[in-house]
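QA checklist item 7 of 12: single-chain prediction sanity check.
[x] sequence parsed
[x] length recorded as 110
[x] structure emitted
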Amino acid sequence: TGTTHYRHSGDLQRLLGYRPCSGRALADLKAWLLAAAGSALSGAELLEGSVDWLRKQRVILPAADPLERMVADAMLAAERSVAQHLVAKLSAGPQRNAVAKALREIGKLV
């Protein structure tokens, strides 16, 4: 129940020095996710890494759905960054325009 959840959260904070995943801890998690997403091979790998990061930082894990959404957002941001980098490296012309258009269409699907 909700009461049990809050009691356990309070115990983790009081007895083990954990802090809630909000405010500065949440901002730090999001920054870590964005940095780590570029080298992650999959969302599952990034999710596992985020759980490890949260434990090392002594931050109480958020619910699964919000954490999975943050991981997915970070992976998408990393993919878009790579795509933008690739388009920028192409020389101007029809090929660059075609690739840029394809990437915009893919972005609409996600």
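[x] summary fact logged: The radius of gyration is 19 Å.
[ ] second reviewer sign-off
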